[in-house]
């Protein structure tokens, strides 16, 4: 075991939390009133604490708890060995490298935060230095209900975004996003309404925000034929079409039939997917995500692969809070060939953040790279305790957009592709 006593890991504390989420629609159903996340505190022998954030839910929580046992006593600077040890511990029960990646990634981020705090340097410096001072993000637009309907004795829960179920509603939501955060590019989560209605929404956005980059992501709601139809309709209107259809061969079929760039965060989610995707010319843009690609350093390496093979680079997001946003911002700042604005759900969830205000702000459609040591954010312990209690009391232990939709609309069926 290398390292000095002070930089060894004493404990990894994993805290499951729940936070409020609006009724956002997607091809699987609708977001539940509460979203789950896990917060990591990696405590070193000298008392330094590194922070991490990952998706929630019982299965991934149990894996993080297994990782917590493995890392005790290891050196926080030995991230290669740490990731290998976690991977080896999970391998017998978790065959998917993508799934194992979720666990090791979260720990790697916490290690880098702790390293930065020990050295007094921001994480972007540990990744080779930032090439931009602020990272641009896209407004993430969703079809949505005005409120979570009253259910099981719980009253309806509204929000200040309102309803968006047609092109006018989407344009209104985009205007609010722009007013509040200054976004200069827009992504619409599709796969909710028949493709022609979503094409109309994109055309309405193009008219309302001329010259501002647009993208559409129906999360594999369409067959390759439908995808090619939409791609032809929106060629020249979208910067890229994201995951219109499932699988690498499916995307390759669509790519052959249109010249609109295709992007994914669904069919290329592990290193072994890169070769077939590149050989079959299935995608032109990869949405990376440090939460499952092995952490921040591996994301930086993934960017080099994209550069070598001429793939564009964007960034995927899921419902998240400030530790994740800080990590996304640091790694995006350190990637020279990031050529699209990143996705973020932050505006939908930031009211329940678990980091103290001040270090992160979405302004002019971008987040300035925090300059404090490590990730540059501080945990709000009161918020963490409150959201942990909410998790315990809620009984919610996993995300199920389809089951929630069925409780509200009993006839709802999950069909992918639907069109
Ligand atoms: O929040 O409903 C959602 C999104 O659909 C999310 O689950 C996706 O993972 O944002 C993601 C995407 O780009 O596919
Ligand atoms: Mg996507």
From TrEMBL:
Which first-to-last residue range defines the signal peptide?
Answer: none
Pathway listed: Carbohydrate acid metabolism; D-glucarate degradation; 2,5-dioxopentanoate from D-glucarate: step 1/2
Q: What does the sequence similarity comment in the record state about its family?
A: Belongs to the mandelate racemase/muconate lactonizing enzyme family. GlucD subfamily.
SUPFAM superfamilies, per this entry?
Enolase C-terminal domain-like, Enolase N-terminal domain-like
Alphabetically sorted, this entry's keywords are:
Lyase, Magnesium, Metal-binding
Q: List cofactor names only.
A: Mg(2+)
Mandelate racemase/muconate lactonizing enzyme C-terminal domain location is 167-261
Looking up SMART domains in the UniProt record yields: MR_MLE
Q: What chemistry does it catalyse, as a reaction equation? A: D-glucarate = 5-dehydro-4-deoxy-D-glucarate + H2O
In the Enzyme Commission scheme, what number(s) does this protein have? 4.2.1.40
Does the keyword section mention NAD? Answer: no
Pfam families (alphabetical): MR_MLE_C, MR_MLE_N
What is the name of this protein? glucarate dehydratase
What InterPro entries does the record tag this protein with?
DgoD-like (IPR034593), Enolase-like_C_sf (IPR036849), Enolase-like_N (IPR029017), Enolase_C-like (IPR029065), GlucD-like (IPR034598), Mandelate_racemase_C (IPR013342), Mandelate_racemase_N_dom (IPR013341)
């Amino acid at each position: 075991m290398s390292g000095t006593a002070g930089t060894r890991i004493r404990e990894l504390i994993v805290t499951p939390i729940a936070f409020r989420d609006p009724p956002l629609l997607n091809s699987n159903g609708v977001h539940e009133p509460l979203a789950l996340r896990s917060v990591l505190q990696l405590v070193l022998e000298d008392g330094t604490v590194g922070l991490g954030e990952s998706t929630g839910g019982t299965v991934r929580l149990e894996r993080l708890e297994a990782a917590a046992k493995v890392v005790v006593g290891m050196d926080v600077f030995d991230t290669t060995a740490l990731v290998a040890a976690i991977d080896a511990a999970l391998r017998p029960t978790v065959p998917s490298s993508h799934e194992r990646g979720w666990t090791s990634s979260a720990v790697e981020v916490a290690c880098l935060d702790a390293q930065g705090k020990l050295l007094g340097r921001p994480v972007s410096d540990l990744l080779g230095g930032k090439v931009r001072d602020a990272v641009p993000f896209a407004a993430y637009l969703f079809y949505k209900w005005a409120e979570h309907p009253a259910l099981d004795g719980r009253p309806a829960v509204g929000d200040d975004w309102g309803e968006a179920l047609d092109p006018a509603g989407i344009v209104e939501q985009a205007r609010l996003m722009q007013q509040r955060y200054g976004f200069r590019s827009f992504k619409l989560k599709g796969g909710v309404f028949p493709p022609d209605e979503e094409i109309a929404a994109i055309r309405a956005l193009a008219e309302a925000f001329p010259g501002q980059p647009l993208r559409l992501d129906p999360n594999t709601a369409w067959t390759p034929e439908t995808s090619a139809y939409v791609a032809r309709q929106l060629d020249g209107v979208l910067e890229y079409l994201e995951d219109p259809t499932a699988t690498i061969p499916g995307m390759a079929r669509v790519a052959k039939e249109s010249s609109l760039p295709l992007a994914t965060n669904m069919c290329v989610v592990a290193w072994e997917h890169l070769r077939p995707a590149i050989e079959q010319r299935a995608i032109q843009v990869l949405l990376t995500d440090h939460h499952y690609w092995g952490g921040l350093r591996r994301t930086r390496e993934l960017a080099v692969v994209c550069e070598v093979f001429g793939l564009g680079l964007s960034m995927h997001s899921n419902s998240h809070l400030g530790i994740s946003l800080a990590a996304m911002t640091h790694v995006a700042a350190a990637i020279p060939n990031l050529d699209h604005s990143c996705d973020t759900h932050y505006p939908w969830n930031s009211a329940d953040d678990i980091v103290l205000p001040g270090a992160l702000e979405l302004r002019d459609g971008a987040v300035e790279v925090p300059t404090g040591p490590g990730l540059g954010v501080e945990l709000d312990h009161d918020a963490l305790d409150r959201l942990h209690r909410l998790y315990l009391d809620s009984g919610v232990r996993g995300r199920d957009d389809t089951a929630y939709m069925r409780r509200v609309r009993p006839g709802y069926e999950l069909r992918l592709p639907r069109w």
